[in-house]
Amino acid sequence: MSEEPRTYTLAELQQEIKESLSESFPFAVWIVAEINTLTRHRSGHCYMELVQKSKTSNSIIAQARATIWANKFSFISAYFESETDRELAEGMNVMLQVAITYHEVYGMSLNVLGINPTYTIGDVERAKKEIIDRLINEGVFDMNKKQELPCIIQNIAVISSSTAAGYGDFVNHLETNMYGYHINVTLYEAAMQGEATEQSVIAALNRIGDEYENYDAVAIIRGGGSKNDLSWFDNYNIAYMVTQVPLPVISGIGHERDDSIVDMVAHTRMKTPTAVANFIIDYNSKFEEQVDSTSSEIFSIAKDFLMSSEMYLNNMTMSIMKVRSRLSKDTERCDRIMSEIRNTLNVRIKEEEMNLNMIAKKIETTPKHIISEQEVHVNGIKELMVRTTKHSIEKANEKLSFLEHRLTLNDPRTILKRGYSITRINGKVVSNELEANAGDIMETLLYDGTITSIVKK
Fold first, then answer.
1. Which of 2, 36, 384, 427 has the most other CB atoms within 10 Å of its CB?
2. How distant is the alpha carbon of residue 83 from its chain centre?
3. DSSP structure string for 154-188
4. Domain formed by 10-128, architecture
5. Strand 155-160's sheet: what is its strand order?
6. Is 186 left (phi over 0), alpha (psi -120 to 50) or beta?
């Protein structure tokens, strides 16, 4: 007759399981798991649900309850935060030292005795590196850094929480800047920590992308916080969206000791919201300084040009006065020549009149043929006198025309009008190429204006 199988009461079965677990795991063991839920009780105890997820489907393949009693939790949490600069939180992969307990009513539970923060740091850094490598491989990691900031930042879209202290500091710092700059700030409300961070920040970036023509830059800001609070910006989807924004992004998320992935892909990374405000104010101030410097330089160049032009005009005036003086002297000389010609003609005419009178007396007593001969002779003398006089006058006019033409040719404006020019460097006339060096500013004076150029070679 076959032996009857042993039958357990539920309590007996639970006791067997409890004893088996105690025999199999008499000492604490180290386990690796993800914190699925975490609750801090007002008593000081910490209750967690630990899970292990499938690497392919992300579904839960193992699950257990864990407890950190109050006398251990204060030490474990403080140690973990000091090493990682993060608080224990849901979604975090941890390595825990646990004692396995079994209760007949509540089942198996893990009593947490210790934690290895190095594992969590390594896991966070591995995940962070994977995101960075993915962005680099996709060719978008430096995309936003290639966006150019405008000459001044006057209209800025801000992604932040309206209740965040960092946002208030940012706005106040811009409004009370010492230069009196007016900077328009448009807030795109978003959660800056917690599960809603990814969705709300991406939505804000999308809205800004649709309205990017209204802004000069984007600022993503929040106040300080633990690494756990700020770890929401080590997110692939947020970082990718930042690389796609058609505006330069300035981050002021609050990391003091290291950068989030959003910091890395942003155009400019600043530590705090106030630092972002300072960056914008300083950026605009530098542009104002450049404008002032350029204005001063233009004023100085204009002043030098006016002074040199004035000197040139003075020189031209003196040259014209010299020409006028020369013309006056030549005119006086021409007047003297004309006076001499008149006097000579008058003398010659008087002499000829005397000769004619003598001839007239002779005519009265000589035959007609003598009179005819004398008439011929007189006519010849008249023609000679006319020709001589006309020739003398023509010679004098030719000399006057020559002098006038010579004076006209020597006029500087006439020389410039023929295509010649005057070249000066630093106010000094340049007559050969050895007097010019590469980079000199050269002034070329033409008939109707001045050309300023830079010597290249």
1. 36
2. 42
3. -EEEEEE-TT-HHHHHHHHHHHT-TT----EEEEE
4. Beta Barrel (2.40)
5. 184-189, 155-160, 217-221, 249-252, 268-269
6. beta
Q: Taking residues 22-49, report their average pLDDT.
A: 89
**From the candidate CATH numbers 3.40.50, 2.60.120, 3.30.300, 2.40.50, the one assigned to the domain spanning 144-271:** 3.40.50
Do residues 86 and 38 touch, judged by C-beta distance below 8 A? no
CB 35 within 8 A of CB 50: yes
DSSP 95-114: EEEEEEEEETTTEEEEEEEE
Q: How far apart are the first and last CA of the chain?
A: 119
Instruction: Burial-class residue 41 by CB neighbours within 10 Å (0-12, 13-18, 19+).
Output: exposed
The number of angstroms, rounded, from the C-alpha of 262 to the middle of its chain's C-alpha atoms is 23
Residue pair 217/159 in contact (Cβ under 8 Å)? The answer is: no
Dump strand ranges (E) for 54-121. Answer: 60-68, 93-103, 107-115
Both structure tokens of 75: 């030490």
Q: How does pLDDT run across 282-312, given as a tens digit for each residue?
A: 999 998 888 878 777 787 787 778 888 778 8
CB-CB contact of 425 with 441 (8 Å): yes
Task: Please state whether beta strands 268-269 and 249-252 pair in parallel, antiparallel, or not at all (unpaired).
Answer: parallel
The reply to whether 10-128 and 144-271 are identical in fold is no
Assess contact for 254 and 219: CB atoms under 8 A: no
Which pLDDT score is estimated for 268?
A: 92
pTM for this one?
A: 0.50
Q: Which of 263, 231, 282, 264 minimizes the C-alpha distance to 124?
A: 231
Q: Tell me, what amino acid is at 80?
A: F
Domain range list for the chain: 10-128, 144-271, 290-410, 412-457
Which of 63-102 are b and which e, b meaning 16 or more Cβ less than 10 Å from the residue's Cβ?
A: ebebbbeeebbeebbeebbeebbbebeeebbbbbbbebbb
- Residue indicated by tokens 């009178």: 357
